[in-house]
Amino acid sequence: MSTYDITTQPIALVPERTLGSPPDPEALHGRLSLGWDCLPVAEPLVPADWAAYAAADPGRSYRHLVLVCSFRPETARARGEFVSASLGLSLRTDEEGGPTPIARAIEPGERTAPVASAASTVSVGLTTGVLNVQAERRANDPAEARREWLVRGYGASQATPMWRFRRAGGHPLVGDHALAALVQTVPGRLNVADVLLAAEIEHRTLGIRRYRAELTPALSAITLPE
Q1: Residue 23 pLDDT
Q2: Which of 133, 168, 202, 213 would be 148's cystine partner, CB 3.0–4.6 Å?
Q3: Which residues, including other chains, have CB under 8 Å from residue 104's CB and lie 6 or more apart?
Q4: What DSSP state is assigned to residue 205?
């Protein structure tokens, strides 16, 4: 995916109410931010295969929607580690019941990272008539390290694409994640991408709690210009 500077805005994370939770749960600040940009498919930053797809269908209108979701480490005032998160889009127009925009392609479909694992060996020996079984563990060759997904995308060719994020062995859910969708818009209508963002955070004393992002109007309903 081509990258360029996108300004992100900090977002408050509000814990969802559960049985036994405090009556006025405190929001987390400074842990998550979100930004976006929307480009014509003729821009050089648009992936070549997406631009070619749109060029082969000149009778339709397309937009390249890019989102950047930034996860920050815990702080003294906002404890807990990100376990997982999800970002979903609901594409629509201002015409109820009419045709809807479609995410013809999304990126990433899957983003993975190597996760080192340990292999087990078993040795058996006979000492003074007693059978001894010992288990040993040795590190796998780095080339044999398995890969686990960190980000997965769903909903290509649908109006409701989404991405899931998670931490995996040795890879905390921290840092910037760029996402993109090639959106086929509806001509002559106001095209909008409604955004829903939620996360799960593990606390040392509270365990895992689910939070919803308190999005500003500019982030919760993204207007896709024609």
Answers
A1: 53
A2: 168
A3: 53, 62, 156, 157, 182, 183, 184
A4: T
CATH number for 67 = 2.60.40
**How many percent of the chain have pLDDT more than 90?**
69
Paired tokens of 110:
């899957």
| The model's pTM | 0.84
172: in domain? yes
> What average pLDDT does range 138-159 have in this prediction?
81
In angstroms, the Cα distances linking 92 to 16, 194, 201, 224 are 27, 8, 31, 10
Residue 28 belongs to some domain of the structure: yes
**pLDDT at residue 121 above 70?**
no
Q: Is the pLDDT of residue 125 over 90?
A: no
Residue 139 in this model has a pLDDT that exceeds 70: no
DSSP state, residue 218: H
Residue with tokens 């498919």: 41
User: Which residues span the domain enclosing 75?
Assistant: 9-114+149-224
Residues sharing a CB contact under 8 Å with residue 57, sequence separation 6 or more, in sequence order: none
Q: Is residue 164 part of a domain?
A: yes
- Judge contact between 183 and 102, C-beta under 8 A: yes
The length of the chain in residues reads: 226
Q: What is the DSSP string of 42-69?
A: TSTTS-HHHHHHHHT-TTSEEEEEEEEE
Asked if residue 135 belongs to a domain, the reply is: no
Q: Which pLDDT score is estimated for 118?
A: 53
